[in-house]
Amino acid sequence: MKIIVTSLFVQDQDKALHFYTEVLGFVKKHDVPVGKYRWITVVSPDAQGGTELLLEPDEHPAAKDYQKRIHEDGIPATMFGVEDIQAEFKRLTERGVKFTIEPTKMGEMTIAVFDDTCGNLIQIVQQ
């Protein structure tokens, strides 16, 4: 068994698709109409056959509440691995990404947290 898709609630699918592809650099894999919304997934450019991230509408009341509460508490909705966190921090900052936590050493890893502008905090980690 392996993880093939994981989802992230987003407030606006178009805005999220732009942010995750044009700002972060992921690659759109699927964009399929499903009723009022779309099945939109992105993948790492280095692992296009790997795990997909589903940009899922936060339309369910429980999703909206969950997303709002973890964001208010400063809890990242998900985590992405990076090879060089300082270089990634610089690249993303230059693209206008706002960090809530700059690169910080935590034991054997270094983390940073940014706002995805779609209702989520995202943590990046260099192990």
Notes on the structure:
The chain is α/β, with parallel strands linked by helices. The chain has one domain (5-126): 2,3-Dihydroxybiphenyl 1,2-Dioxygenase, domain 1, CATH 3.10.180. The chain is built from three helices and eight strands; from the N terminus they run βαβββαβαβββ. It has a four-stranded mixed beta sheet with strand order 1-4-3-2. The chain has a four-stranded mixed beta sheet with strand order 5-8-7-6. The longest helix has 12 residues, at 61-72. The mean pLDDT is 97.
SSE blueprint:
Layout: E1 5-10, H1 13-23, E2 27-34, E3 37-43, E4 52-57, H2 61-72, E5 78-81, H3 85-94, E6 99-106, E7 109-115, E8 121-126
Parallel strand pairs: 1-4, 5-8
Antiparallel strand pairs: 2-3, 3-4, 6-7, 7-8
Percentage of helical residues?
25-40%
- The run of helices and strands is EHEEEHEHEEE
What does the average pLDDT come to?
97
CATH architecture classification: Roll
Briefly note the structural class of the backbone.
alpha/beta
Number of domains: 1
Give start-end ranges of low-pLDDT stretches.
Answer: none
Strand portion: 35-45%
Describe the strand arrangement of the main beta sheet, using strand numbers: 1-4-3-2
CATH topology: 2,3-Dihydroxybiphenyl 1,2-Dioxygenase, domain 1
The CATH superfamily appears as 2,3-Dihydroxybiphenyl 1,2-Dioxygenase, domain 1
Q: What separation lies between the terminal Cα atoms?
A: 25 Å
Biggest β-sheet description: 4 strands, mixed
State the helix count: 3
Q: What is the number of strand segments?
A: 8
